[in-house]
Design a protein that fits this description.
The structure holds two protein chains of two kinds. Chain A is an alpha/beta fold. Helix content of chain A is 51%, strand content 10%. By secondary structure, chain B is of the alpha/beta class. Chain B is globular. The chains are: A alpha/beta, B alpha/beta.
Chain lengths: 223, 490
């Protein structure tokens, strides 16, 4: 039993999803990844909470340590967070639901007329890996679609992304629409993307400007 | 004296390697295709033989080769006077340098420091006035937008350009489609202007709104650069071979579309295969050695196809003029010029990954380009590593930067990195890259896939890691020139 839990943890640290995954050195294909290993652990009647405690939490702590020390780079962090996010999809329905375990919801979107999504996707993966429920609305999302999702999902957070100088102004339209719908006080708005800045966030009335995906996770702690 | 520098071209890829890229890009276009939502574009593609399924236009190889056959092989862009004309022909290439643009900020030097402010109309006028006086600026791409409502921007920009420059006017993007006839009326000679159309978002997406503006520009027989700027490691493979295959496929899709709209379309091929900063926040790395190399490598495809090239150089990753800015820009100019990129865009003035420009930087860049031109003219049979090293040392010396041995070593390391291929351009390896791109696109989460797939390449050192050149620069001469042009009050 210890052996399989160790293997799951090791593969989270290595960011290997399944047996086709080549891993960080491109040479690891063939060995089972987290998806196969977690299923095997469940088949052996290992409890989901044990997998969570012995693999996911210490695994991501180790990934965080390696990132802090410069041994791991952004794609490594992303690969591990993606593993955790996929494992959680399997474990979550099996975990005993407690009221205080309800996840906080985060809506993400690249604003209208903008098709760029690198930053948004990294944020999405890291948020999922950190235990948030993420609804990613995709790219070129209209203010009305975002407002409707906030209404329906009762999300606590909205993250808006833009890469183009011509689309960044659409972030303000989202905030204005949230105000019109009487929802502005119910959500914290995070913005990010190459052309935006802290000053721009203040100007349009966003709550937080995030320099990058990791900054978004940090800001979220203080939100 | 007429514009344009003639020099011996340095090829990075052999003809056989270009053929591998071409075949792989065609496979990608045929099997994966480009995502498109513009009905106007989709209809035209379909009528001429492409297949549209599940939101993607799949283009057969014969359509690509037919378009390459038809597309304009020589384009002449006009200045106000014929001495300022620009002639782009890969059979007899000349290298021209211009500005680049849509920066949001302008830096002004004030009391020994650079001050950043939002760019507007007066900055556009100032920059045009400066560039009008700089001999190495051969054409002007709109550096910043005037601060007028979007509705008025196209015409205001055209008016300001015509009043302030005699050089060729590259308006960059068309903001409002319906303004094109009025722009043409204002300029009278259609060759006096050109555009850049960022018609593609990587990986393999044709942007609806931009596509339709692009089609109208082509229909009017106005020259337009087709631009695609993937970032290896996030919107394309980190692999150089993979990224070149993808950017080439993207650009070919637009060459096809342009020539369906108007056979013989005046399009310039502009591939900007840069990388993502996977050491940090995945932001673009415009002027680091691997990006300088890839941007120079893609030029070879334009010579393989014998079509006019729009190059890209010297978009510094630095926020202010400093020794690192000068060094990375100089390397970029040397390699992009040697590659034979003809209409080198963004070459002058740009900082902070296209977000910022500075009047001082335009003047600095003009001085360094003068030195690079001298070096190339003194050594017609140049050794590329030697000329690059000499150019950077000379450029830094111009501004009294003290180069220590560590700095010299880093400059050498950068040059060696740019000149050293890291991968093989074999059909098998290229095929595996097409598979990677195809899987990433089909997953619907391409940036995550590309990023994960980049881990092995990162560990092989495909993203350059070096030092940053620190130190003071003497800008006295630059400031004197600026005052002379703009007056003592600015």
């Amino acid at each position: 039993m210890e052996d399989i839990l160790e293997k799951i943890k090791k593969n989270i640290i290595e960011g290997r999803m399944n047996s086709e995954d080549e891993g960080f050195n491109g040479e690891m294909a063939g060995e089972p990844g987290v998806m196969e290993l977690v299923q095997k652990a469940l088949d052996q009647n290992i409890s989901p909470s044990e997998i969570l405690d012995k693999c996911l939490n210490p695994g991501m702590e180790e990934v965080g340590r390696r990132y802090e020390e410069g041994e791991y780079l952004t794609p490594d962090m992303l690969a591990s967070a993606e593993c955790v996010s996929e494992i959680m999809k399997i474990l979550e329905p099996k975990l005993v639901k407690k009221e205080d375990q309800r996840k906080e919801k985060f809506i993400l979107a690249t604003v209208k007329d903008d098709l760029h999504d690198i930053g948004k996707n990294i944020v999405s993966t890291l948020l999922k890996g950190s235990g948030y429920e993420v609804k990613d609305l995709g790219t070129s999302v209209t203010p009305d679609e975002i407002v409707e999702e906030v209404k329906q999902s009762h999300a606590q957070f909205v993250g808006l992304s833009a890469l183009l100088t011509t689309t960044m102004s659409n972030m303000k339209d989202v905030i204005d629409k949230l105000k019109e719908a009487g929802l502005r006080d119910k959500v914290k708005v995070f913005i990010g993307g190459a052309p935006v800045s802290k000053e721009f966030a203040q100007k349009i009335g966003a709550d937080f400007y995030c320099e990058d995906a990791f900054d978004a996770i940090e800001k979220l702690k203080s939100a | 004296m007429n514009r344009g520098m003639k020099l011996k071209r340095h090829s990075f890829l052999s003809n056989q390697e270009c053929q591998v890229i071409h075949d792989s890009s065609c496979r990608l276009l045929e099997e994966v295709g480009v995502a498109a939502t513009s009905e106007k574009a989709i209809d035209l593609f379909q009528k001429k033989g492409a297949v549209y399924e599940q939101g993607r236009v799949k283009i057969p190889k014969n359509m690509v080769e037919d378009a390459l056959e038809k597309t304009a092989k020589e384009i002449t862009l006009h200045g106000q006077h014929s001495k300022d004309n620009i002639r782009l022909n890969p059979e007899d290439p000349l290298v021209y340098y211009g500005t680049g643009g849509q920066a949001l900020n302008v830096l002004y030097y004030h009391d020994g420091e650079f001050e950043k402010k939002s760019a507007g109309t007066q900055d556009l006028i100032d920059i045009l006035r400066i560039c009008e006086n700089l001999e190495n600026v051969d054409f002007i791409t709109r550096p910043v937008e005037p601060d007028v409502p979007e509705e008025k921007m196209d015409l205001e920009k055209t008016r300001i350009f015509l009043e302030n420059t005699s050089k060729h006017v590259n308006l960059a993007n068309l903001i409002k489609l319906d303004k094109l006839p009025e722009i043409i009326e204002a300029v009278k000679d259609k060759s006096r202007i050109s555009f850049i159309s960022c018609v593609l978002v990587s990986p393999m997406n044709l942007v609806s709104d931009t596509v339709e503006k692009f089609m109208d520009i082509v229909k009017e027989d106005i020259a337009v650069s087709i631009s695609s700027c993937p970032q290896g490691g996030s919107t394309a493979p980190l692999s150089e071979v993979g990224e070149i295959i993808q950017v080439n496929a993207e650009l070919l899709s637009a060459v096809v579309l342009a020539n369906l709209v108007r056979p013989g379309a005046k399009v310039l091929y502009r591939g900007i295969p840069i990388t993502s900063n996977l050491y940090a926040d995945a932001s673009p790395r415009w002027c680091q050695p691997e990006s300088i190399r890839r941007i120079a490598v893609i030029t070879d495809m334009t010579y393989f196809y014998k079509i006019p090239c729009c190059g890209t150089a010297a978009v510094s990753d630095e926020k202010e003029p400093n020794p690192q800015t000068v060094a990375e820009k100089t390397l970029s100019w040397v390699f992009e010029s040697a590659s034979g990129a003809q209409f080198i865009n963004s070459a002058v003035g740009m900082l902070e990954q296209v977000l910022t420009v500075s009047p001082e930087q335009y003047i600095i860049d003009n001085q360094v380009i003068s030195r690079i031109k001298e070096l190339f003219s003194q050594s017609p049979d140049y050794d590329l590593a030697e000329i690059a090293q000499k150019a950077v040392h000379d450029a830094l010396n111009m501004f009294d930067v003290n180069l220590d041995s560590q700095m010299k070593q880093d400059i050498s390391n950068r040059i060696e990195f740019i000149l050293s291929p890291k991968e093989e351009y074999t059909p098998e390896y290229a095929g595996s890259q097409v598979d990677t791109i195809s899987k990433a696109i089909q997953s619907g989460r391409s940036s995550n896939k590309f990023m994960k797939a980049s881990r092995a390449g990162l560990r092989k050192g495909w993203l350059y890691k070096g030092m940053r050149l620190e130190g003071q620069m003497n800008l006295d001469e630059v400031l004197r020139i600026k005052k002379q042009i703009l007056g003592w009050d600015r």
